Recover the amino acids of this structure.
């Protein structure tokens, strides 16, 4: 029997902690062919998604997949992210959270499925990210911010 990864459990725990503290949980995701997100919001092969209760509907955080509905430029989109593609989860307001090493996924033939992003070494501090600018500036741009 193969060992189940701790990653989906840690993602759910950080998400719950953010929500309990009144913080906004952001999910940094490496985008590849298995990731269902609006491609116009992808930058440098990655996207950062607000997965807070006010930004999502029908959020399901499973062991293999994170799925929900969210609005992008006012249009409801179905979002589907493999847990393997999550590179970090953190609180927008203070940057506290956890970063994960991305492991290339294998397709059904045993071949690596390339991701569009490669991470370099991560420090033990996990994440020291600056919060994105205030989204209340108007306009049609998303309130989501790319984290490099």
């Amino acid at each position: 029997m193969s060992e189940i990864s701790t990653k989906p459990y840690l993602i759910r725990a950080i998400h719950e902690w953010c929500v309990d503290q009144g913080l906004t949980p952001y999910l940094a995701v490496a985008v590849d062919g298995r990731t269902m997100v609006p491609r116009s919001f992808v930058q440098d092969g990655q996207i950062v998604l607000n997965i807070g209760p006010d930004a999502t509907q029908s959020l399901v955080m499973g062991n293999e997949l994170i799925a929900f509905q969210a609005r992008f430029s006012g249009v409801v989109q179905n979002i589907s992210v493999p847990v393997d593609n999550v590179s970090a989860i953190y609180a927008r307001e203070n940057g506290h959270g956890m970063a994960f090493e991305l492991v290339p996924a294998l397709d059904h033939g045993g071949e690596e499925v390339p991701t569009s992003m490669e991470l370099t070494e991560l420090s033990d501090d996990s994440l020291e990210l600056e919060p994105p600018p205030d989204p209340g500036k108007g306009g049609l741009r998303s309130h989501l911010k790319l984290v490099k």
User: Anything to note?
Assistant: DSSP finds one helix and nine strands in the chain. Residues 7 and 85 are 11 Å apart (CA to CA). The helical segments are 7-20. The mean pLDDT is 79.
